[in-house]
Design goal:
It is built from three helices and ten strands. It is α+β, with helices and mostly antiparallel strands and about 170 residues long. It has a domain at about 1-30. The protein has a four-stranded antiparallel β-sheet with strand order 7-8-9-10, with helices on one face. Strands 1-2 form a two-stranded antiparallel sheet. Strands 3-4 form a two-stranded antiparallel sheet. A hairpin with a 5-residue loop joins β8 and β9. The protein is flat, with a radius of gyration of 23 Å.
Length: about 170
């Protein structure tokens, strides 16, 4: 947060006119400890504030087969801040970076990679429709679960098309 978006900081000395000085700020969210299973829930519905009607967000959304979450962890960000502070580069906050402990360095070496196991699909509009899912079984084969029908699924060629959602007409 820079320029006109700076934060008022009570810890800085007062300016000559007695007002609180402002400083650049950084806001970020990170994960302290990664879970064994990571689930993302994307809000794909919105509200039109002019008509107060819900609508479905059908914009393209893709997801990787493998997802490395390391750069979203608190330990990684502390290490980046420490390196920036040591090197005098941007991102270092004076007195704000702490050197990672031995335990944190061991955690940093842990695998932070997740393999996609499943996707829940919605067909229809915001007010109604049909949910079904795609999931990878223990033999690394993708299966399509649509009510009582379970079939094999070629994720390599069809996952992006199927996961887009769309309308009931496409179903």
């Amino acid at each position: 947060m820079e320029g006109s978006n700076q934060l008022a900081c009570d810890f800085l000395p007062k300016s000559s006119d007695g007002s609180t000085q402002k400083a650049n700020g950084l806001r970020r969210t990170c994960i302290g400890t990664l879970p064994n299973t990571l689930i993302f829930h994307l809000k794909r519905f919105g509200l039109d504030y002019q008509t107060f009607e819900s609508y479905k967000i059908n914009s393209y959304c893709e997801f990787p087969e493998l997802l490395d979450m390391k750069k979203y962890t608190a330990n990684y960000l502390v290490q980046q801040d420490h390196m920036a502070a040591e090197g005098g580069g941007e991102g270092g906050e004076e007195g704000g970076a702490e050197k990672a402990t031995d335990d944190e360095q061991v955690k940093d070496e842990e695998d932070c990679t997740y393999r996609l196991r499943g996707v829940v699909i919605h067909l229809g509009v915001a007010g109604g429709g049909h949910y079904w899912s795609l999931a990878r079984n223990d033999q690394n084969q993708w299966m399509k679960f649509n009510d009582i029908e379970v079939t094999s699924f070629d994720a390599k060629h069809n996952l992006a098309t199927e996961a887009f959602g769309g309308t009931l007409g496409a179903w």
